[in-house]
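Sorry to interrupt, but I need a hand with the structure work. Could you add the entry underneath, on a fresh line?
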Amino acid sequence: MRIGVAGAGRIGAFHAATLAGLDHVEEIVVTDALPGAAAMLGSEHGYVVAADYDELLGRVDGVVITSSTSSHADLLTRAVGAGLPTFCEKPVALTLDETMAVATLVETSEVPVQIGFQRRFDAGYRRAHEAVHSGELGFLHTIRANTHDQSPPPAEYIPTSGGLFRDCNVHDFDILRFVTGREVRNAFGTGANKGADFFAEGGDVDTAAAVLTLDDDTLVTVSATRYNGGGHDVRMEVMGEKGTIGVGFDDSLAVRSAEAMVDYPRGPQKWSFMERFLPAYQLELAAFCDVVAGTQASPCTVQDALQAFRIAEACDISRLEGRLVDLNEIKGAA
């Protein structure tokens, strides 16, 4: 099959290389809003270069959207209009209204769309899902989740990122729904800036935390930061009546013990999300190829993306207004 990659930046190049390693992908077609970026990527790796997005749509069997967040909704809408199965990196759009509009469009079409929440394909999170749904942990009472970046992104990224809750913690919100099978009832969020000025100048924070209550009264704490110098740190602890299971507690854990005579974790640390989730990225794109082939349904839909976005929206409203936000206040409930 022929797969198009719209966006020749870091994640686009990463996904193109992953696709090139899959047996059933015969050709990769790349394009970018900056033609030079697509030409460079194509020449380096032997990909076909499309002059623009319309040309790409006419040459492929499926589309992978890795462009800037502000362009996701438009490119996804056009791909669905062309009848092409589409993979889109999160978020679907920068605003809730636009996300809802795209969800409605996709749901009224017959075109399969998969959203890039790669943690659903991570072995640790899948094991946690199994432990919850098999009853191994008994009833759940507390969950802790965090997404801690080792270093901040460029300043120009922040104004179009959607904010820390939507950009980083949206992964935690999606995987929380996946692991537990529950929805969030209410949220309280807060944030702070202790790093570079460009976060506050962009209306964002460099560190955030939220307390969520699920619809079965499970309590959840979620945190994020752009400044975790010890390494890229993504974890979840799921605590239940009969036991606790943890995701991300391997030798790369970016935490040092304060206890004497403890040499765990032994390292080395991981320094980026691409390194942390490489196997998951490979599995999610292999799954997308199955979606293109028509042999499986989308494992992560636009509706899933909308529900995770609603949680992020509630957390950000709470941060800005200093109050508990009920998810019934946020449009777009499933």
